[in-house]
Amino acid sequence: MSSLLPQITRRWSIHCPSSVRAALVRNHTTGSCHRLYHGTSSTRLRQVSSSMEADGYNRQSLNLYTAHTSSEEMLVGSLERMASRVKFEDMDQEEPRRRHIVDLGSADGSNSIKTLRFAINQLHQSSHRIMPLHVTFEEQPASDEEKLREVLESHDDWFKKNNVTRSILIKSFYKQLFEPNSVDFFMSYICLHWLDTSLADDIAEWKLLGDEQNDHSLGFTCINESTAPVSLARVWKRDLADVHLAKFFALRANELRPGAEALLVMVSHPHEFICPPDGGASPLTRAMQNCVAQGLLREKVLRRTIIPYFLRTVDDVKAAFDLASSIEINNLDGSTTTPGEFLELVDIEAFPATTGGGSQSIESVAELFWSIHSGAVKTAGPSEEELECIRRETMQVFADIYDSKKGVPSTFVACVIRRRTRKQW
């Protein structure tokens, strides 16, 4: 079956300033067209920078479950429409087809299984029967597959009771995952802000992308910080964030069945993890600057540290959605399709959330922050002693600038996309 998977090309080119030391390469497997930076091992990069510190994240990930509950109404709407579609499709069928649901970015499965149980219960209620389902849990290659498997196995009785089979797919969602027209519903929570680093040999060069003559690299570690150069943020949006999300949209459009939908929830901007209430740099940048000032961290580690994500607004998501219609897919049989042209933006909304607060300690929120960002810090090459200094200073910065009773305010953006049965007129 793998021979049927399409190869993908892009019909547009990306502006590449002459000052950028990079070569455009075309990847016919993932459909991306990226700059290939020369530097450290890309294998090491994929294993470290695109992943989070699993144990800490798994302990604290329930702090992020607000992203799931706040978008619940959109989820219910998608599932009600799916139930209506299934009822129509099965009218003349003696035995109903097992529908395929995919959870993208499952992490250790703890949050995924909670939302999945709610979703399938809602689907059964809307269809007035137990609908045969298969669920694929996708997670990126650097993740702990055994932990995910362990969490899912603890729910074996529920899977059997609800006639749900399951599988795990360890593969980047920036690649083709499934056969065309094979998925009945996608859902993805708080992982699409991470960019596709698979072809970047050294993401440290993203910190100077197109602007090597003006080195601001000691002033920020996240592109959405108030201390990051505005001109650089624009380049990131144009050449990285918009392109990567557009590619994701096109890939999923090719895999969705006609009429099927996807619910995508992303970390958005503003977010006080990155833009603290005092208007200064992020906690990670401050912590690293403090370590440099104390002589406990080499300056070059801070220069090389960049978190490879982009926090999108509603307008950013819409821009990437519009771009997706430009992606052309060349199938192995010689035919070409542009599945993004079939996509419809059903709904999109930004909503506020808070991490921590109340009785929850600011230390647990800081641990969550560290588990999310420490992988990219490791990619910059600190020693164990330097890494511990950064972690310790990060904890202190959180204690200094955040109110434990208030928590850390943030924003999420949720959207529902649908594959139409025909192109838009």
Topology:
Elements: E1 7-10, E2 23-26, E3 33-36, H1 42-48, H2 54-60, H3 66-70, H4 72-89, E4 99-104, H5 110-127, E5 133-139, H6 145-153, H7 156-161, E6 164-170, E7 183-189, H8 230-255, E8 256-267, H9 283-293, H10 299-304, H11 314-324, E9 327-330, E10 336-337, E11 343-355, H12 362-379, H13 384-401, E12 408-419
Parallel strand pairs: 4-5, 4-7, 5-6, 7-8
Antiparallel strand pairs: 1-9, 2-3, 8-12, 9-10, 11-12
Helix pairs in contact: 2-12, 4-5, 8-11, 9-13, 12-13
Describe the structure.
- With 425 residues, this protein is an alpha/beta fold.
- It contains 13 helices and twelve strands.
- Helix 9 packs across helix 13.
- The longest helix has 26 residues, at 230-255.
- The protein is globular, with a radius of gyration of 22 Å.
Summarize the structure.
This protein is of the alpha/beta class and 425 residues long.
What characteristics describe this protein?
19% strand, alpha/beta, globular, 7-stranded mixed sheet, 12 strands, 3-stranded antiparallel sheet, disordered N terminus, 425 residues
